[in-house]
Amino acid sequence: MPSVCTFTLNHPNAVYYSGQTINGTISLTTTSEKNIRNARIIFLGEGKVKWEESTTTTDSNGNSTTSTTYYRSHEVYINNETIVRGEGILPVGVHTYTFTIVLPLDCPTSCEGRYGHIRYGISLKLDRVLRFDNTYYIPLTVLKTVDLNLNPVFRLPLLAEKVASLCCWPCSGGKLLYSLQIPFGAYTPGQIVKYSLNIQNHSMVDVEGYFMEFTQKMTFTAHSPSRSHRHEKRTLVTRDYPEICRRLTNRILNGEFQIPSVPPTTDPTKIIYVEYRLKVTMIMSGCHRSKDISVPIFIGNIPLRESLPSNAGGMDATPSAPEITKSEDSSGSEMPPNYNDLKPPSYQEAMQSDSPFVDNDVDKHHRVVGFKPLYPVYS
């Protein structure tokens, strides 16, 4: 029988925030002796971006040549190795090792995409003599705290406005004025986003309905052999509405949707940039093209207090994110709110990419493809 390895963590769901401490034990049950150089516990957090592009050229003699360029980026956020057993014979039986790992405060959030990922994992590696190494591995979710209350701009409503001239001979024309508004600029997964579509139809063309889309766009940046970008765009939520706005009339159309389990918006300067938009597309009658309008939505993992339902208060549970305390010398400054009355979130699997990233640098026997991080979802 093969050896069996189990990992026990102080957070059973294997979700941690940057700055927190991971405590756990690894229990290895061996069924035969193993001659090892050492046994190591490795905690690795890294970001990888990788893709390839092929081009084919044909010379004057009709001979074709194909060249492939491999684009990549690699960042290491934490690489912690501890030798838990030295050289010698590892006997048959149960071997238990404990570990403690402090996550840096600036660890970016785990995320998975088509052309790269940010991933954290713990492994026990047996460096064997004259044999293939044995590696036992589990991935974790690490979350960088993104508290929406710390940016006052997020409390303001977002408004986008457009004017379209409708003219398609021999149809009559006119102007269409329309706007899209949401009450806040930022939300967390699980929250309901209410939106308002204001249509002033000064034309002779009917609006026959509209559909909304909540989209995620991931931008992957490679730094080698040259700086290049790849994009992955996914529609996370979509709905159709047969709401009609007749010619020469005005209408205000209200709707809502729920933010699914997704990673927060990230820094656009990083190798993986995640952003979100709400887009509404109106279907025009006759020969006229559809008209669309959109607003960006910033996603965090601690919600705005103003955006919470009125019945969210009065609860004495604390969130799982690190507590933010008031320093002694900041009594006169604007401080983040107290989270004692915030209902803690549940943690749900992320919506998975249709084509998950495959890290070919990792041996196929130890490779984890399609890992789904857990993100906080507020109900």
From TrEMBL:
Residues 309-359 are annotated as: Disordered. GO terms for biological process: protein transport. SUPFAM superfamilies: E set domains. Gene3D superfamilies: 2.60.40.640. The keyword Hydrolase does not apply. GO terms for cellular component: cytoplasm. It comes from the Eukaryota. InterPro entries: Arrestin-like_C, Arrestin-like_N, Arrestin_C-like, Arrestin_domain-protein, Ig_E-set. Pfam families: Arrestin_C (PF02752), Arrestin_N (PF00339). Keywords: Sensory transduction. Residues 172-304 form the Arrestin C-terminal-like domain. Signal peptide: none annotated. Belongs to the arrestin family. This is Arrestin C-terminal-like domain-containing protein.
